[in-house]
Amino acid sequence: MKSALFLLLIGALFSTQTDNFSKKRVEMVKNQIQSRGVKNAAVLDAMRKVPRHRFVPSDKVSDAYGDGPLPIGYGQTISQPYIVAYMTEIINPKPVHRVLEIGTGSGYQAAVLSEIVSEVYTIEIVDELSKQAASRLANLNYKNVHVKTADGYYGWKEHAPYDAIVVTAAAEHVPPSLIEQLKEGGKMIIPVGSPFMVQELMLIEKSKGKIRTSAKMPVRFVPFTRK
Ligand code: SAH
Questions:
Q1: Keywords for this entry (predicted)?
Q2: pLDDT tens sequence across 80-109
Q3: Among 4, 11, 51, 110, which is most buried by a count of CB atoms within 10 Å?
Q4: Which residue out of 79, 106, 114, 130 is catalytically annotated?
């Protein structure tokens, strides 16, 4: 009897906690994301659904729904929620799409994408982060995310071409292999610029064999490193 009561209490506490987090996500979407102009319903839904607090270190859980990036160890960061939403919206993700991400980090951007598209392939250069993200995504039951440790400069040829490519580390130039692995009609979003300086988020579109590039907004990402 006592233990049943105890379990009930734990259950109630846990569901209050879960409710709190989902409430925080609703506020995050309204105050940080919709307020800055993101409109795509599938993107907003995904941002309301993915438990961001499960992608940050345990001592950062209370800041998980704040309006900024957070450290995730190894000198890396999980991007600001708005930037994740913006980058997801701009590639115009569809349920049939297969998307390549460079810079898995915590796995959060991959999880957001996986709520919308059919398959997500994601590459991380730091093996420890790659392993942590893979087990985190498996624990959260994200079955359509495929993680590997490698230098993302070369893309992931086996599964190419991709409908979209999302790069979450700042490169000095756009890696040619990534352009090659983009489908006709595909879109890539990538921060370009020198490390630790303001970079420009660039949209790259491949259409009728031509490459169109447009600068979208100044951003600050961790550097794209090489093996
Ligand atoms: N998308 C991540 C943000 C990670 S920050 C998230 O949602 O949490 C960028 C990540 O890119 C870092 O983890 C860094 O280690 C990784 N990275 C940097 N250069 C890379 C490269 N050449 N190939 C693959 N990953 C790289």
A1: Cytoplasm, Methyltransferase, S-adenosyl-L-methionine, Transferase
A2: 999 999 999 999 999 999 999 999 999 999
A3: 110
A4: 79
Domain boundaries defined on the chain: 68-219
**Superfamily (CATH H level) for 68-219:** Vaccinia Virus protein VP39 (3.40.50.150)
> Do 120 and 34 meet the contact criterion of CB atoms below 8 Å apart?
no
pTM, two decimal places? 0.94
| pLDDT tens digits, one per residue of 200-214 | 999 999 999 899 999
First-residue to last-residue Cα distance in the chain: 59
Distance CA 40, CA 166 (A): 17
Residue 6 per-residue DSSP state: H
Question: Would you call 79 a catalytic residue per the annotation?
Answer: yes
